[in-house]
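Hi R.,

Quick one: here's the Glutathione S-transferase omega sequence you asked about.
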Amino acid sequence: MSTEKCFANGSATPGPVPKGHIRLYSMRFCPFAQRTRLVLNAKGITYDTVNIHLKDKPDWFLEKNPLGLVPTLETPAGEVIYESPITCEYLDEVYPEKKLLPSSPFAKAQQKMMLEHFSKVIPYFYKIPTGRKNGEDVSGLEADLKEKFAKLNACLVNKKTKFFGGDSITMIDYMMWPWFERAEAYQFKQFLDGTPELKKWTELMLQDSAVKAIMFSPDAHKAFFKTFLDGNPDFDYGL
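And here's the predicted structure, written out as tokens:
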């Protein structure tokens, strides 16, 4: 796991991407960038990491990715790829060892459709803690999130598989995992009690070598998330 401090505006431009490597522009606590880190680690790809200060982005980074978002990949040839699903699919195609996406077009489409469904879940991980902090009534949002967890649980029940793509980890599992790693920090862990198959899935994911290689403890997530909610995120927390 990279422990490099983030690059802010005014920082020197990193040198060229070494031959035989790929570079990941990231932020240590970003769940979207974690998707790409999981795929890089699962596939055993040699990469280096440049962490970006997302509140004070370097001009040189904005030249590479005008959206200023992480994850962003850069190849030794200067090719730049961004948006987490796109970076992950790119890595799976360019590094064909240990394929994470299914070869069947229909099975691949199923994973992409499931990802679209999961994208509707993600906002709740931010709306609910923000609402709690502001003293708002978030019971309706919590009920909605529990319902969405129940649907994910039903998906596993109907499939009769350990993971969302089968009995081994595939791309969709890595795409969903970062938010569940943060469930305790966001005070959502108790919501999993009513979804036994989903809870079992989280326990199996915690045993995965790629997950273990880059994960943070619940306390670290909690500490960073507090700075995020306070409006002054400490991107270098713990360094």
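Residues 111 and 172 are 6 Å apart (CA to CA).

Cheers,
M.
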